[in-house]
Description:
Blueprint: H1 9-15, H2 18-36, H3 39-44, E1 47-52, H4 55-62, H5 64-70, E2 74-79, H6 80-86, E3 99-105, H7 111-123, E4 128-133, E5 146-149, H8 161-181, H9 187-198, H10 201-222, E6 227-231, H11 235-251, E7 254-258, H12 260-265, E8 277-280, H13 287-300, E9 304-309, E10 321-325, H14 340-353, H15 363-377
Parallel strand pairs: 1-2, 1-3, 3-4, 4-5, 6-7, 6-8, 8-9, 9-10
Amino acid sequence: xxxxxxxxxxxxxxxETLEELYRDDLPPIDRSVRQAxxxxxxxxxxxVHALGDGDSYxxxxxxxxxxxxxSNALYTPSPAMRFLxxxxxxxxxxxxxxxxxxxxxxSGGSTRVVQSIERVQANNDQILTGVLVGKSDSPLGNAAQxxxxxxxxxxxxxxxxxxxxxxxxxxxxxxIRLGEIKRVFHMDEANALRKEIYDLAKPAMETFEAAKxxxxxxxxxxxxxxxxxxxxxxxxxxxxSFASAKVVEVCGIFAIAQDLEEWAHVERFAYPLDFPVVxxxxxxxxxxxxxxxxxxxxxxxxxxVAVLDSEDTEISPIADVVLPVHGxxxxxxxxxxxxxxxxxxxxxxxxxxxxxxFMTDNEHVIKLREEMRRxxxx
Length: 378
């Protein structure tokens, strides 16, 4: 590798810390949620706009179901650029402080997220602004009225697996706290929900270990495709979006996520008929459609890798390779487990293809990437 090239092993290194991450970092992030907003502010919130770029946006997508299920507030996830130019100028709160705009950034330096928060505050002082940020002392941390700190121990910023989980912890903690304060459920129930997430530490590691052998099989099945397709619905669309981004970043294969039903409407018409499909399908509301689509995917001739509950009996016989997920988890909490095997797959593909992360083995790209970085972070 070139000097400075980023070894895909960083994926494995971060996945190996998951048990510690879930147990050690969830409590302080949840405390920060409680400290960021007082009870009156939370009672007043009826609409949450969550915005971010890259992994932060994917976390916002993955949190949509948990807000719908627990928060008693409308919830709208948006990419930061779209919100900045096509959302921020059109917010019309019904009552003072009934709208929360929440910017998400692990680094605290995502320029479009910072600009979005600043635009909202300049337009309307009746809108509450907050941030979920990995570095409180940062442009984003200093921009908003309220700060949720998702700072975790630094163990390599890339490829963003740990910071993604930290963003999930902050978002899910906020959804539960909103429901608690709005009396959707009792404090004891809220604490039980928090414990459900905390108790995913062991299943997360079991899922990582269980994926190692099937990932080897999946790599041989996939080969070196021109592109890959990820699919899932509900919270699994967020998971599919994050996992497909890891394939792009870690091994340089173009990959994109699509909703289950939209895949049936559009992607089924795409050549070649042997491009790989990775399906995220936990038990839950969208499982019946995932099962139907799995059959169609195989009938068309696509290799199918499915991320499934370890005890699945309906989609697993259809798939070529199953990346099993251990531990029973409600569908709205599934984003905490279902990205693990799919992220490990990205690392294994990178090694098979002899590639470094973020194309850092390409001298031409290295020269150009600084200009892109300037555009993103200013």
